[in-house]
Amino acid sequence: MSLEATARPAATILLLRDGPEGMEVFMVVRHHAIDFAAGALVFPGGRVEESDQSLAERADECPNPAGLDVAAMAFRIAAIRETFEECGVLLARPRGADSLIDAATLLRVEEQHRAALNAGAIGFDSVLAAEELLPAPDLLVHFAHWITPSHQPKRYDTQFFLAEAPAEHLAVHDGREAVDSVWITPARALAETETGRFKLVFATAKNLEKLGQWRTVKQAMDAARAATVVTVQPRATRLEGTKRLLRIPVEAGYGGTDFIVDMPPAS
Q1: Residue 198's pLDDT is what?
Q2: What pLDDT, on a 0 to 100 scale, did the predictor assign at position 118?
Q3: Is the pLDDT of residue 50 over 70?
């Protein structure tokens, strides 16, 4: 009997901005050689590291105005770190400041630290300390919680957050884990998946559909603040060919419980 793979904690941010055709979300295309969601259009994110947990425990280095527990804060720190690593947007403030770091400061921080951070040669806490910055988890709004189905060989327990993209921060894919990037409306991302331009895994597609209910960043953020996040762990039943029936809780707010998909699993 095969053992069920453990779902690793992970976090992702849906960076939002208002565009001419409505609200846009920043997405990246995963490298084809990565063993989870290879080649797919995804939101920036990744695993929660021990260093994220450690930083979340240090109140002097990790503001926590909402009084969240350490585990909840670690997801938010991971989301902020991964967003900086993958697309160069840094949700952090200079100590004592109310505003996020400006474009000139971000450029310098990126040039000095981003490559070393991506290579694992320096920790995110060290980057923040060296630049006298504090992360800004208060800017993240909890949006969704998905756990990879139990039968898959690589599994994640992922918290999704919304955040308004700082106007001065230029989001650009890292060229390593992500090989392309785009600002796109949820409707266009879904439509261009139908035409074959993009590839989406089930969780990403459903979250794009959910996000597409709102036309502006304010509408999406306000709705997410008012909602209760319900955990989703799809239960899969094989159908003919490559099709699967995936069942999720109706309370999660994705417009139904049973969905027939004809796409490969994420791993």
Answers
A1: 87
A2: 87
A3: yes
Say whether pLDDT at 3 is over 70.
no
Amino acid at 235: R
Residue 232's nearest CA partner among 137, 156, 168 is 156
Give the mean pLDDT of the chain: 89
Alpha carbons 156 and 231: distance in angstroms, whole number: 13
Cα separation, 123 vs 22, whole angstroms: 37
For the chain, which domains are there? 7-230 (3.90.79.10)
CA contacts within 13 A on the Cβ side of 21:
10
